[in-house]
Design goal:
The protein is 25% helix and 39% strand. The chain has three helices and six strands; from the N terminus they run H-E-H-E-H-E-E-E-E.
Length: 100
């Protein structure tokens, strides 16, 4: 698996942003389901040119969604995903907004 295929996108939510502001070396990413911590570490180092201290991962089950229509109820699921919290070494940071 290529390093560019492992990192799907950075997670820029209110909770993730607060965590980054409180602890300057933590960043959250949505990653490929089958990627392990070593692959995630190498992909972040390759993409952002930083040194990674450690990686924590979490698997999230997709939520069940139901909606009513004229013909009845439609049930479905949102997709499952894997989230990684990456801890950088001292002196390194990532700027997600520099390419906008």
């Amino acid at each position: 698996m290529e390093p560019k295929d492992i990192i799907i996108k950075p997670q820029i939510t209110e909770k993730a942003t607060l965590q980054t502001e409180k602890f300057a070396n933590r960043y959250t990413f949505i990653v490929h389901q089958k990627a392990n911590k070593y692959q995630i570490k190498k992909a972040v180092e390759w993409l952002y040119k930083v040194e990674v201290d450690r990686v924590n991962t979490m698997n999230f089950q997709g939520k069940k969604k139901t909606r009513g229509t004229r013909t009845g109820w439609i049930e479905g699921r949102k997709p499952s995903y894997k989230k990684a919290v990456v801890f950088l070494k001292e002196g390194y940071s990532i700027d997600f907004y520099s390419n906008i």
